[in-house]
Amino acid sequence: MNKAKQLINGYAVLEAGGKFEPFSYEAGELGPNEVEIDVLHCGICHSDLSMVKNDWGMSQYPLVAGHEVVGKISAIGSKVHNLKTGTAVGLGWHAGYCGHCHPCKTGDQNLCAEAKSTIVAHHGGFADKVRADAASVVVIPDGIDLESAGPLFCGGITVFNPLVQFDVKSTDKVAVIGIGGLGHIALQFLNAWGCEVTAFTSSESKRSEVLNMGAHRTLNSRDQGEIESAAGSFDFIISTVNVKLDWTLYLNTLKPKGRLHFVGAPMEPLDVGVFSLISGQKTLSGSPVGSPTTIELMLEFARLHKIKPQIEVYPMSRINEAFDHLKSGNAKYRIVLSND
User: What is the pLDDT, as a whole number, of residue 2?
Assistant: First the structure.
């Protein structure tokens, strides 16, 4: 007898810039190193919108987006021995790694050149189930709120990873550019890390919220005079925005040996005054999401310090309404879809 075909039901965009439509696909046999996850919640990241529109030129349609997955393992492959069914787990940008390159062997799987993306040539978490290699799946510790945990697996780890990679110290003065989905989590992490935290924001209406999230002060990113008044102030600046700014102006707010670090991705080339870099021995850098080990560390840090994203929740069936809200720019501060 033929085995019944297993269908995964979700929502897909059929063409660039299109709307999400109900979509089902055959899952096939579960690979020996894979796990299947029953999706409970899935955050919406701005990267999902970029993939919907094919902004990066690598989208494939039908596209089932969603890479901030929280769920419970429903099936495990024959070679998976470190996970069991019923365990609450998260899945972020990566759904697998090669396992044999130098970054993989040294704990930097997030830098693997052959890493498999959860939503590039792979169906993601805007569905009732999702599959991924066990190596990319991270167990969620008790004490983490599952409904709001999804954004930690992309937005959260994106701003936490540089704290570990560049040895940010509790005595450092750190600024965050852009207080949105990533920035509002960065403020919480940095405050708990012990840093003196400044928020660069273009919205004066956010001031009280930003201070409640962990910033000690704010500076208006549209006021050149305010930015200039902070010259030589910061050890580290994290930029979460995807728009072009006067980067030389921000470089001048760094102390000698300071670092301007990008986790947001402006599409335009950076236009900076190199003299400012040379004279102050300053650094420009960027980083992606973190390794599974760093994600585990982030989750434990979030648990200890009671850090969680501020979310708005929509039923998965209202996915198009949720994306319209994201595009409006009025989301506070991360949208999560819950399976209904």
Answer: 43
For residue 299 the two structure tokens come to 């989750």
Contact residues for 253 (Cβ-Cβ < 8 A; gap 6+): 175, 227, 230, 231, 232, 233, 234, 237
Looking at domain 156-286, its CATH class is: alpha beta
What is the helix, strand, coil percentage profile of the chain, to 5?
Answer: 30, 30, 40
Domain ranges of the chain: 7-151+309-338, 156-286
pTM for this model (two decimals):
0.94
Contact between 175 and 73 under an 8 Å Cβ cutoff? The reply is no
Return the pLDDT at 1: 35
Give the CA count within 13 Å in the CB-facing half-sphere of 200: 27
Q: Which of 263, 268, 271 is nearest to 239 (CA)?
A: 263
Please provide the distance, in angstroms rounded to a whole number, between the alpha carbons at the two ends of the chain: 33
Q: Which amino acid is at 9?
A: N
What average pLDDT does the segment 112-125 reach?
97
CA atoms within 13 A on the CB side of 271: 6
156 token code pair: 């959260």
Q: pLDDT tens digits for 281-300?
A: 999 999 999 999 999 999 99
CATH number of 7-151+309-338: 3.90.180.10
By DSSP bridging, strand 116-117 and strand 94-96 are antiparallel
